[in-house]
Specification:
This protein is mainly alpha-helical and 1190 residues long. Among the domains are: 227 residues, Tetratricopeptide repeat domain (Serine Threonine Protein Phosphatase 5, Tetratricopeptide repeat), CATH 1.25.40.10; 65 residues, no CATH class; 45 residues, no CATH class; 281 residues, Tetratricopeptide repeat domain (Serine Threonine Protein Phosphatase 5, Tetratricopeptide repeat, Alpha Horseshoe). It has 48 helices and 9 strands. The strands form 3 sheets. Strands 3-4-5-6 form a 4-stranded antiparallel beta sheet, with no helix packed on it. Strands 8-7-9 form a 3-stranded antiparallel beta sheet, with no helix packed on it. Strands 1-2 form a two-stranded antiparallel sheet. Helix 27 packs antiparallel against helix 28 and helix 30 runs antiparallel to helix 31. The two termini are 67 Å apart.
């Protein structure tokens, strides 16, 4: 016999000829589809090899044009360059002869207040078509920046001018131009040279409309005098339009000037050179890169022979290099895009072919015999060809209704078997196999294995094991506990905080329902025993062998009821026998079938446990507990309970294993958590070191609504194993929900409203006494009797002693912050002075909260001294801060001359040298949360434009409640208040004696410009945050009235206490939120500056973030970044500050730093979608590449 290799023509029904013919067609179609699939894969791989994500970076590093132009970024500002006709030597020489000659310089020109205005008449007929241009029609709308660089360019004409005292060169230039423009000689007053010089003057001072008038007048004068200065005037007009960002008009004028100057010959060679250079700038700004490159080329060619001054032609070469580099990168990226489109198309086709190949393969395999049958054919062939082998076990079995016998073979070691018999099949061995007697090998295969199992099992029968071969898993060593959790966070006094509850909770479930407890099993491995050895080695079985048939369930025997168990509902366990589906615990199946360190059949493991019990092998309590685990899996709680009870009697030292199972069975069947708690307490002495024991006890307590006991047990579980994630998650969810089984004093005696005058009272019924109501006396600060909705009797009553006892816990008294506790100084022996903070008893906690005294403390005599400032004592201080004074607006800001929010930066401070940056680890963590998106055209088509997101930054507000401040101490949030007209929170100015210019940020322009924030709009996104300060249905007007009353009350309280009538900083801080919502920037800033003056240092970040938002909205981006950076220094782990700084950087245009802070935001709050949206927009629309490897 020879083995036949696998073939798709091994038909399941070889007798059917039609199926065979159809199979031939299917195989041909399948083969063709596979061939096409491989071709598609080759094309995809070839395209992926061509695709280079770092192509742009390589071009910028290696392309000579990119290297030459790397100093010139592709931004509009790089191509906005001021030029003047005075940069040509020919013009300067002729102008000195015409107007600025010695006679003019010797003339005494008196000082004047007039300015050199030009009056332009109708333009020359040759250029009358220019009047149709939008820039010419609306020349009064042109805006340009100051051009101080033109002072040195126009200087050669005015070198001989003598300056008056206190006069600048520009002022002198204007004074002489006024004299020239008003000269009686029209050859002087209407000279094109004078007009062009006047145009240069107005460009220096930044008045576009006046510069236009003078340049236009120069063009008319040149036409009237028939001079050759018309191209010079046109060049001046073109450069003016370019600086005013009117690129279309600039291109037309500069192209006209360049060609006119070129046509005029060599005398005007320098003019045509400059004109072509400026024309290149205009083409670049209008995005016509090819024409810009040509214009720069002509300028560079002419510059070799031109007589230029104050111009370096190399700048044109660098600009040309930048544009050529950009064109090259665009072309290459277009090729890359085409390649990516081809890859995508091929992958779509590949996916379709995969589906086709899979479908055809299924059709082919549908007619082929099964893999199991093929394997049996091979094994039967090997059995008949090569004889019996230890690697192959064959038996006979009866199949079908006709009771036919069939040989069924099984491989014990697949890897060894394949390597051994593949050589035999291929004839690579000289061993000759004798033909076996059929009857002989069948008989050996059926009976030999059973006899060998009994023989291997015999040495272990009756072997009892009392001592564990290994050490216990618990308790863990101290070094291991320290490594798992150094700070034991669940024992912290401030755990959990808001961050823990929002960041740590994975999912919410009803912990008070019995079905919320996942089934568990305390493994005997924890006690030092090895269950896998008991189920394999002690049964004489290898890990790859099965237990011989037949397989049956384990039997645990009879048991005697243990009276101490107090199973009040044990009858339900007996009645649950017939409902295995209801009480089955399939979650334990995966644990049970892997008890032997390998996945086995369920009944195979059950038979092994039965053999352990019957043959008395190993600790009986382990086998009985494993048997109970089996019955829990299949849903027989009665048998499971029988097994664990016997196991508890057989192994009392390890009763926690049995009773933890029994408690879970009871609560699952009866629903009685109380009974389960009683069962767990029996094993308290044995399971003290097991974290799972304490976890189950805690969960049973929670189900029984003993929440405090449950929390304590869950913490005990974490004390023993900090890596116990189930205990950690359940404890965090339980504590964050805030449910407790203890009713507090403030809950027993809530505040009541007796009348419109007495709105804050408390009613208490002492034992054996009638209920009476009390309010706080303002003078004595004690509770006094008050009549509340009762009949007037004219009698007053003394305060009951129990009322005085519980008064510290009542909510009618205002509570102070822990940071407001008075500090005192202790003078010990006049040598050492230690400053303490008083801690009330309810703030007790770990020893780290208290001062560790030195040895000298024990020998010293304590003496308390209260240190009070003297009345006449004055505190003087000096504060300094370095900054650059921002530009002061010459007139009130107006939309008439401020068209864009970016122009507000002109009046903002300069950015500091050191800018805020997040930690590199935070950026890396954010990158793991949200990797950089791909920037293919298809993927970016639906992403919001970057400009839209920048114009609408997300308003941020740091909740003071999240930082530990209680608003209800200062604002009556719950009591409804009618909205009264004009009741708004007015914030006072800071007191002079407390005023600090640095805390008020006087070095920023926010104060002087607060009433001129043209672009500040109401921050409607904060409306819900503001309305949360009131009841659900109250409007912002109601909240404003509450804040108004709170401020007035704070002022009155401060005056009565002799504190000067100042307002608490928290009220002015919250009031700023109202003014931000309604859009009143001056009042919002006033409130924030007051809050900054009076807030404690650790709370100033809240006001700084709010102030940064206001500056950001108003366009003062530098001030916004400075204030947000100050907040960042105080609270570097606050997500709101990170996203605020990221939004500011994005508005400034520094996208790399913006991305860093967006990623750090995601590291702190990974579900913050606005940060992800802005990351996508920056990658898709900024046109930049970013590298965060460092």
């Amino acid at each position: 016999m020879k083995p036949v290799p696998y073939s798709p023509f091994m038909m399941a029904r070889p007798q059917h000829l039609i199926e065979f013919v159809n199979q031939v067609k299917l195989v041909e179609e399948w083969t063709a589809a596979v061939t096409e699939l491989n071709e598609k894969m080759e094309r995809i791989q070839m395209g992926e090899r061509i695709d280079d994500p770092d192509l742009e970076q390589k071009l910028r590093e290696n392309n000579p044009h990119c290297q030459k132009g790397k100093e010139i970024p592709l931004k509009m500002q790089s191509f906005l360059t001021n030029y003047a006709v005075e940069q040509t030597k020919e013009y300067v020489a002729q102008a000195k002869l015409e107007i600025m000659n010695d006679a003019m310089l010797q003339r005494k020109v008196p000082p004047t207040q007039e300015l050199p205005y030009c009056k332009a008449e109708k333009i020359s007929i040759l250029y009358d078509y220019l009047d149709a241009m939008p820039g010419f029609k609306n020349f009064d709308e042109l805006i340009i920046d100051h051009a101080p660089e033109l002072v040195s360019i126009c200087a050669p004409l005015w070198e001989g001018i003598s300056l008056l005292p206190g006069e600048t060169r520009v002022d002198a230039m204007g004074r002489y131009l006024v004299a020239l423009l008003t000269d009686v000689d029209t050859k002087i007053s209407q000279s094109p040279y004078v007009y062009l010089s006047a145009a240069c003057y107005w460009r220096i001072v930044g008045e576009a409309s006046e510069a236009y008038q003078c340049a236009r007048a120069a063009l008319q004068a040149a036409a009237n005098f028939k001079s050759e200065l018309e191209p010079y005037a046109v060049l001046t007009l073109g450069n003016l339009m370019l600086m005013a960002k009117r690129d279309e008009e600039a291109v037309i004028l500069l192209d006209l000037a360049a060609h006119d100057a070129q046509a005029m010959g060599a005398d005007h060679h320098s003019l045509s050179t400059i004109a072509f250079g400026v024309l290149g700038d205009a083409y670049a700004i209008s995005a016509n890169l090819s024409m810009a490159v040509k214009s720069y080329g002509k300028a560079l060619e002419k510059a070799q022979t031109a007589q230029l001054q104050n111009i370096d032609p190399e700048i044109w070469a660098k600009k040309q290099g930048t544009l050529i580099c950009t064109q090259t990168i665009q072309d290459e990226l277009q090729h890359q895009e085409s390649n990516i489109r081809s890859i995508i198309d091929n992958k779509h086709a590949y996916n379709d072919l995969v589906e086709k190949v899979d479908r055809l393969e299924k059709e082919v395999r549908k007619h082929v015999t099964s893999d199991e049958k093929l394997l049996q054919h091979y094994l039967r062939y090997d059995q008949a060809k090569f004889g019996v082998s230890k690697l192959r076990k064959c038996t006979t079995r009866v199949i079908g209704k006709r009771k036919l016998e069939e040989i069924h073979c099984r491989i014990t070691d697949p890897s060894t078997y394949d390597s051994t018999f593949s050589e035999l099949r291929n004839g690579k061995t000289n061993q000759k196999h004798k033909k076996k007697n059929v009857t002989e090998w069948k008989t050996a295969e059926v009976w030999r294995r059973e006899r060998s199992f009994d023989k291997n099992l015999a040495p272990f029968v009756g072997m009892e094991i009392d001592e564990a071969p290994m050490s216990k898993k618990y308790p863990l060593e101290k070094s291991t506990l320290t490594k798992l959790s150094m700070d034991r966070y669940w024992r912290r006094a401030d755990w959990p905080n808001t961050y823990d509850c929002t960041k740590g909770m994975i999912a919410e479930e009803d912990l008070f329902h019995k079905n919320s407890i996942r089934p568990y099993f305390i493994s005997p491995d924890n006690k030092g025993f090895i269950v896998a050895d008991l189920l394999t080695k002690y049964l004489g079985l290898e890990i790859s062998e099965e237990h011989p048939l037949p397989w049956d369930e384990p039997k645990c025997g009879d048991y005697q009821f243990h009276e101490g168990l107090m199973l009040r509902d044990f009858k339900v366990l007996i009645e649950a026998w017939n409902e295995p589906i209801v009480y089955a615990e399939p979650e334990l199946r995966s644990i049970f079938v892997r008890l032997a360190d390998k996945r086995l059949e369920l009944m195979d493991v059950a038979q092994r446990i039965r053999t352990l019990i019957e043959k008395k092998i190993g600790p009986k309590w382990i086998a009985l507990n494993l048997a109970a685990l089996y019955y829990r899996v299949i849903g027989k709680p009665q048998e499971a309970a029988r097994c664990v009870l016997v196991a508890a009697m057989e192994g009392p030292k390890f009763a926690d294993v049995a009773f933890s199972q029994l408690a879970q069975i009871v609560v699952r069947v009866t629903g009685s958590a109380e009974a389960s708690i009683d069962i767990m307490k029996i094993a308290a002495d044995f399971g003290a070191d097991e974290p799972l024991y304490h976890y189950l006890l805690g969960r049973f307590n929670v189900i029984a609504y003993r929440v405090d006991e449950g929390i304590a047990s869950l913490k005990e579980a974490l004390d023993r194993d900090p890596s116990f994630t189930a205990a950690r998650d359940d404890l965090l969810q339980l504590v964050c929900k805030g449910k407790t089984s203890t009713v507090g004093v403030r809950d027993l005696f809530p505040n009541v409203c007796c009348s419109s005058l007495i709105q804050n009272a408390v009613c208490i019924r002492p034992p054996k006494s009638p209920e009476r109501c009390y309010e706080v006396d303002e003078e004595s600060r004690k509770l006094v009797y008050v009549r509340c909705n009762g009949v007037y009797t004219g009698v007053s009553y003394k305060t009951h002693p129990i009322v005085s006892l519980v008064s510290p816990f009542l909510t009618v008294f205002p509570k102070g912050s822990r940071r407001d506790i008075i500090r005192y100084h202790v003078d010990v022996g006049r040598v050492h002075t230690v400053e303490h903070e008083e801690l009330p008893l309810d703030y007790g906690g770990p020893s780290s909260f208290f001062v560790k005294h030195d040895e000298w403390w024990k020998r010293a005599t304590p003496k308390i001294q209260w240190k009070k400032p003297e009345a006449e004592e004055k505190v003087n201080w000096v504060e300094t801060v370095e900054y650059q004074q921002p530009e002061i607006p010459p007139r009130p800001l107006s939309f008439l001359w401020i068209k864009d929010k970016k122009e507000m930066l002109r009046y903002d401070i300069k950015l500091p040298e050191v800018l805020p940056r997040p930690l590199a680890s935070q950026v890396r963590a954010g990158l793991q949360v949200f990797p950089p998106p791909r920037t293919a055209t298809q993927m970016c088509s639906g992403v919001t434009k970057l400009s839209t997101l920048i114009e609408a930054p997300v308003p941020t507000w740091v909740s003071v409640t999240a930082k530990g401040e209680d608003l209800e101490k200062y604002i009556d949030i719950r009591t409804p208040v009618p909205s009264v007209a004009n009741l708004v929170p007015e914030c006072p100015t800071p007191k002079k004696e407390k005023y600090s210019p640095i805390l008020s940020l006087d070095h920023l322009p926010i104060g002087p410009l607060a009433d001129q924030f043209l672009f500040y709009k109401p921050e409607k996104g904060l409306t819900e945050a503001l309305k949360s300060l009131g009841n659900d249905r109250e409007s912002i007007d109601h909240v404003a009235a509450k804040l108004h009353h709170a401020i007035k009350f704070s002022q009155a309280t401060s005056e009565m206490n002799g504190e000067g009538g100042d307002v608490h900083w928290l009220l002015t801080l919250v009031s700023s939120l109202y003014w931000r919502v309604v859009g009143d920037a001056p009042k919002a800033i006033a409130c924030l500056r007051h809050s900054l003056q009076n807030a404690p240092p650790h709370m100033r970040d809240v006001a700084l973030v709010a102030l940064s938002n206001v500056c950001h909205q108003a366009g003062l981006l530098h001030s916004a970044l400075v204030t947000a950076g100050m907040a960042f220094e105080q609270s570097p782990q606050l997500a709101a500050i990170h996203v605020t700084i990221a939004n500011i950087y994005a508005s400034i245009g520094d996208y790399e730093k913006a991305l860093e802070f967006y990623y750090s935001t995601l590291s702190l709050q990974n579900n913050f979608e606005p940060a992800k949206a802005r990351i996508r927009a920056i990658y898709c629309h900024s046109g930049q590449t970013f590298n965060f490897q460092n």
